[in-house]
Amino acid sequence: MLLTIRHRTTYRYRQPVAFGEHRMMLRPRDCAEQRVIDIRLAIDPEPVQLHSIADGYGNHIGIATFSGRANTLSFESTVRVAHAPATLPIAAGAVDDSAEDRTALETYRVREPATLGAEVNAFAQRFRAAAGPAADAWPLLCALSDGIHRGFAYRRREAQGIQTPQETLRLGHGACRDFAVLMIAAARALGFAARFASGYLAGPLDPANSGDHLAPGIAGGATHAWAQIYLPRMGWTDFDPTSGTVGRQNLVTVALVADPEDATPLHGTFLGFPGDHIGMDVAVAITAVPRF
């Protein structure tokens, strides 16, 4: 499948302001299941300098610097991605880190589960108890993802910031990034290596109950976050507790990190009064064309 992803973010201000450095995580990662064909980036006002770097996780970061003032600042990326997710195996065996360097996996674990807090550990152990002590990793993690999907109410939140796992457990609701963080914390409490994934969802969160009526060739789309958990003989596997799915069928990965704060799609500063910032508008549209 060939996906075209258009992602536009516009900041609005009461009066012209100056802009500090802005960092963008908008370019999808290249891997066996997805490949960037081309990308166009339009920024208004135009930056005086634009360059890119890779962070310690291999994610692409664009860095823009500006001069002058304006009362709006917009970023629009248009990316074409060849997307061919693999079919998942039916099951996974017992946890064994021999397939990947253990030192690298330690970045995504917790040494002391107690540091995650009593609430998170109790939540995670509910699924361990239900599955039994000898349960394989695959059904245990599928049950955990499905438990979050069914047990918590989804509430879209445009404001930046992520709820702690404890806040999500107490509130009973959250956005996709909150569910991903809860899934990661619970998986780590169960002894797994887990990391935060962000990017795009090509389609509605729940097609069966969605009010979206999509035209042919339109996959819909939104920015999205989910969890990746390391499994033996399967490697890093995508679990999306927001939509209750497993695998990368509708997911386009932009960033993979240990700490979700390192995966902000767009971050920057402006020089002006705090009240100058009026708001931010985000729009994502994804079109899909089969590849023959």
Number of discrete helical segments: 5
Low-confidence segments, given as residue ranges, are 90-97, 206-218
**Tally of discrete structural domains:** 2
Architecture (CATH level 2) name of the largest domain: Roll
Query: What is the alpha-carbon Rg in Å?
Result: 20 Å
- Please give the number of β-strands: 15
**How can the largest sheet be summarized?**
8 strands, antiparallel
CATH class wording of the largest domain:
Alpha Beta
SSE order, one letter for each helix or strand: EEEEEHHHEHEHEEEEEEEE
Global geometry: globular
Percent in strands: 35-45%
Alpha carbon gap, first and last residue: 9 Å
* Portion of residues within helices: 10-25%
Q: Average pLDDT value?
A: 88
CATH topology of the largest domain: C8orf32 fold
Question: Strand pairing plus helix content: what structural class?
Answer: alpha+beta
Question: How is this structure best summarized?
Answer:
By secondary structure, the protein is of the alpha+beta class. It has 5 helices and 15 strands.
Defining traits:
292 residues, alpha+beta, single chain, globular, 5 helices, C8orf32 fold, 15 strands, five-stranded antiparallel β-sheet, 2 domains, eight-stranded antiparallel β-sheet, Immunoglobulin-like
